[in-house]
Design a protein that fits this description.
The protein is α+β, with helices and mostly antiparallel strands and 121 residues long. 37% of the residues lie in helices and 26% in strands. Helix 1 (13-22) crosses helix 2 and helix 2 crosses helix 4 (76-85). The relative contact order is 0.28. The model has no long low-confidence stretch (mean pLDDT 95).
Length: 121
Amino acid sequence: MAEFIINEKLPSLNEVIRENRANRYAGAKLKKGIETIIGWSIKKAALKPITNPCVIDIEWHEATKRRDVDNIHSSVKFILDALVKNGILINDSRRYVKQIYHNVIDDKTNYVVVRIKEVTE
């Protein structure tokens, strides 16, 4: 099992939509910035490439109850894209990512724990 921690509060879908509507470049800039932060978390954990299909467990630690669960979960797109970009996953298609499980946890700080488990079919 591979694991890494993102010590950031990832943007909600509402924030992403707002940036995309602001101007044509704001959304792309947000995505690039978030993927860079996630990429540093991946590098820090020294993950090795995963070539088999996998299941991903994500713990979303939230300091407040202001965000809806669906808005929190929407940042999974940034996580998967960063895993592919950093060479950990071959692809984020259903051929390689069989399932994603989410758990939102009320906590004192904002961070995200990502666990990747290889599976045999």
